[in-house]
Amino acid sequence: MSTPTRVNTKPLKRLRRQRIAIQVACLAVTAFMVVPIYLIALAAFSSRSALNEFPQRFFPSAFSTETMSTFLSSTGVVPGLINSIGVGIATLVLSLFVGAPAGYAIARFAFRGRNNYQLFLLFTRALPIVVLSVPLAQLFLTVGVYDTPLAVTLLHTALALPTTILLTAAVFLAVPVDAEEAARIFGCTPVGAFLRVVLPLALPGVAAASIFTFVMSWNEVLGATILTLNQRTLPAQVLSSLSDSPLAFRFAGGFFLIVPAVVFIAVMRKYLLNMWGTTIR
Amino acid sequence: MAVAVTGRRPKRRLSPAFILILPSIIFMLALFAWPMVSGVAQAVWSPDGFTMAYVDRMLADPSFWQAVRNTLLLVVVLLPLQFALALVMALLLQARPKGTGFYFYLWAIPLAVSDLAAGLVWLSIFTDRGYLNSLLDAFGVGPVSWLSFENYGSMFFAIVLAELWRATSLVMVIVVSGSQGIPKDYDEAANVFGATYLQRLRHVWLPLLKPSLQVALILRTILAFQTFAVAQALTGQDFQVLVGETYRWYTALQNPHVASALALVVMVVSMVAAVLYLRLLREETGSGNR
Amino acid sequence: MAEINIQNLVKTYPKGTERATDDVSLQVNEGEFMVLLGPSGCGKTTLLRMIAGLELPDSGSISVGDREVTYLPPNQRNMSMVFQSYAVFPHRKVRANIGFGLAMRKMPKAEIEKKVAWAADLLEMTPYLDRFPAQLSGGQRQRVAVARAIVVDADVMLMDEPLSNLDALLRLSFRAKLKKIVEHIDMTTVYVTHDQVEALSLGDRVAVMRAGRIVQLGGPLEVYDHPADMFVGGFIGSPPMNFLDGTLVSGPEGTQLRIGDSMIEAPTGAPEGKTKVGIRAEAIQLTDASAKGTIPARIDVVEPLGSSILLTVEVGQHEIKVQVPADHPVRSGDEVHLRLAPESIRLYDPETGLGWDLR
Question: Is B192 in Cβ contact with C79 (below 8 Å)?
């Protein structure tokens, strides 16, 4: 071992080149994902005259809220915004109310038919919204709920329920049964044990599920449009006025609809993988 | 329908599990099962009894066949592209470059974007005075009417691109989540035993990813058949799709019966596709149980 | 089969400044079974993974035979490996698993089948060839992993704690089987373990590692009988080597060792003065009478182990272990005298812990 061996560093160099290529590819994909968002924001914050220019500038010359304010003051937009928020929150609450207990049942009880029930839930997730919306519209007409935020809430809850149930089931499964049982041994009622032990531990996961429901409701277009006429949610409003509205209106609408998505993913980063990992099983 | 809860003494009253899931079952039956049945009825039932009149009317409309053709084309083109792109994205992230977490966040954003919003975003790019034409203008290439109803190809291209942008993230997240469940050891073992990168993808990664891919495939196919708001935002009624036609018959033409018939077509096609997938994927001998 | 030549291998942990391997050099001879032994965190697994190519060193070189492979990707190094978790592919049958390395080398199917049959037979897995790993027990999966490794005609076979996930009884029986198989196939093998019993039983040579360095390299008996420093002595052997404080004095009768107030016979070769005395439990005898050259002590704990009795004995302020035959009459509290066999006494520098080579 007197003379050290000559080391061939060619593989090392090749590895380095590969890593650079990967970075370049990542940047390219990122550009594809991010540039359109930048562009719609740009369009939403350009003045109307700037939008009529050709060719369009790629960098903001002047920040203008003209397009946005025109959008917001257009008929039906602010009510639509309010409706969307209202429906979103109502859906969130209702689906948790109906779904969390079912999730708890799946997680804690090995009841007969549990597998069938879960399959049923997975199946309903795959059901096309359009199949439900048209008959539901008729149904709501007869019941007298047509064209109300309640109607949209009901539809959205039905759509969100399978996901909510399966997500909360996964969350509750992650809370160890021992903690609950210990609480009961020390004198809590089953409900008390749930409230004091399970709920605090499950809260982050349940919160993630709730926000997921809210965004899903915020984004839902077709059902909301079919089920409402005057009391529209924001997407329904934008969709129904698409053909009549000027471009600026549409750009501002698009930007507005996107904002929750960006915020949502930022907040839900950590949970994204867990959510999809668990619901697949 | 009293179900037994394990390990307890036999109860006369209903088990707690049943009580807990009851509201959800009622809800779903009311809002899923009933509309489904009602939808079928609406498509084939008139005041005079069973009728195929609505279905006939639907079939006689030339837009219907155009919509069928367009939707099928969309699904056939979009799905392979999405899966290829999602797999590439997942593989890039798996190499753990600098900024992996940051990239993942940015690439996942479109998954929370509604299809209407996605359509509007790409509208700003493809519209006549939009950003794409502005870019081309810088190279001296004349403005192209991407969204004009005369340019079938470019309309299709715009919709595919918008949907690719929006819906690939979902598949990517599913794939990344699935591959996180694959222990690193398998890849390392295959590597030591002589497998090249491509061989490892083929013999280790893809097979173990199959369950995730299956779920993603079924979900995405069913959703792809329902493409609507994207096309609506980009091309109005010029590029017909099945759900778009459903919307048109319901709102503009005020005919809920034909609309129901169309909705049924969508459902049948989705179900057939789902069953086909499950059948195809189950035929490969049961393996990979963990 | 080929020899391995490792020179001055340095690897720093990615997060900090500590070195996983600190300028390690090692030569493994052709056909040798080399064991890397040490506590967790000593760098043995990192060293193994660098030989495999799963990790790359910061500096230094690794050669296999006449090929320099330091930075070569794993799939070009012609090695085989048994992982601690076995890494048996769950989606392929046992047959395909065992033949994986051969399939990657594009061997013709008929030949693969023959070799797979041979390896399966050697590991008694023939009836399971068409099963899936999920249908096998842990021990059976481990055998598949070993079969997969031996069926390839690799230059080097690497093993990363392959027995550690087995229960104690299986571990014992498989250790013997493994030794027989390894002798049969005659491959250069590098084996990582933290279990010193495994190391002594399997290895041709043992490299004891600590904090990224090799502190002793030698045959099992050598490492057991002549630990190079106090760490090795305390790590190898069950119970570990005893260490007492003593002083070497030279007198008219030659060099003697003073422990406490007793003077006993000492080996020569170490300098006078304070020293650490190392002696194994089985090298200490009990004598009743206060003969010349013994140390008084008091028995504290008596543990009958079946084949022998392990005593915890108080000597002054030391507590040491002594092994006596199973039929020796002893009781807790007995006052006894210990005779330390002088040929088994090892002396260590109290400052550095390094041993004085007394041969």
Answer: yes
Separation CA C283–CA C277 (nearest Å): 13
Which of B182, B186, B193, B213 has the most C C-beta neighbours within 10 Å, making it the best mutation to test the interface with C? B193
Residues A149 and A113 occupy one common structural domain:
yes
Residues B197, C68, C48, A19: is their CA dihedral positive or negative?
A: negative
Name the minimum distance, in Å, from the CA of B229 to any CA of chain C. 41
Structural domain of residue C209, as residue ranges? Answer: 4-235
* A34 & A80 share domain: no
Question: Which residues of B are less than 8 Å from C77 in CB distance?
Answer: 192
For chain C, give the secondary structure using H, E and C: CCCEEEEEEEEECCCCCCEEEEEEEEEECCCCEEEEECCCCCCHHHHHHHHHCCCCCCEEEEEECCEECCCCCHHHCCEEEECCCCCCCCCCCHHHHHCHHHHHCCCCHHHHHHHHHHHHHHCCCHHHCCCCHHHCCHHHHHHHHHHHHHHCCCCEEEEECCCCCCCHHHHHHHHHHHHHHHHHHCCEEEEEECCHHHHHHHCCEEEEEECCEEEEEECHHHHHHCCCEHHHHHHCCCCCCEEEEEEEEEECCEEEEEECCEEEECCCCCCCEEEEEEECHHHEEEECCCCCCCEEEEEEEEEECCCEEEEEEEECCEEEEEEEECCCCCCCCCEEEEEECHHHCEEECCCCCEECCCC
| Among A52, A55, A134, beta carbon nearest to B263 | A134
CATH of the domain at C86: 3.40.50.300
CA angle A173-A179-A183, nearest 5°? 130
Q: Name the packing angle between helices B62-94 and A10-44 (round to 10°).
A: 130
Kindly state whether residue A97 falls inside one of the protein's structural domains.
yes
pLDDT at position C57: 93
Give the end of a domain, one of C216, C235, C254. Answer: C235
Question: Are C323 and C188 members of one domain?
Answer: no
* Domain of A30, in residue numbers: 10-66
**pLDDT tens string A110-164:** 777 777 887 778 777 777 787 788 888 888 888 888 888 888 898 899 888 888 8
* Whether A7 and C68 lie within 8 Å, measured CB to CB: yes
User: What ipTM was estimated for this complex?
Assistant: 0.85
The per-residue pLDDT for range B267-289, each reduced to its tens digit, is 888 888 878 877 877 665 444 33
**pTM as predicted:** 0.84
Q: In terms of domains, do A100 and A239 share one?
A: yes
Tokens, residue C66? 């006449």
Right CATH number for B53-283 from 3.40.50.300, 3.40.120.10, 3.40.30.120, 1.10.3720.10?
1.10.3720.10
User: What's the domain count of chain A?
Assistant: 2
> Which of B8, B14, B21 has the highest number of chain A CBs within 10 A, making it the mutation to test binding with A?
B21
Residue C359 lies in a domain: no
Q: Does A206 lie in the same domain as A119?
A: yes
Domain residue limits, chain B:
16-51, 53-283
Give how far A73 is from chain B: nearest CA, Å. Answer: 19
How far is residue C22's CA from residue C11's CA, in Å, rounded to a whole number? 7
Q: Do A155 and B266 touch (CB under 8 A)?
A: no
C229 and C258 in a single domain? The answer is no
Higher pLDDT, A34 or C17: A34
Among C183, C200, C235, the domain boundary falls at C235
Q: According to the model, what pLDDT value does residue C358 have? A: 66
Does C222 share its domain with C268? no
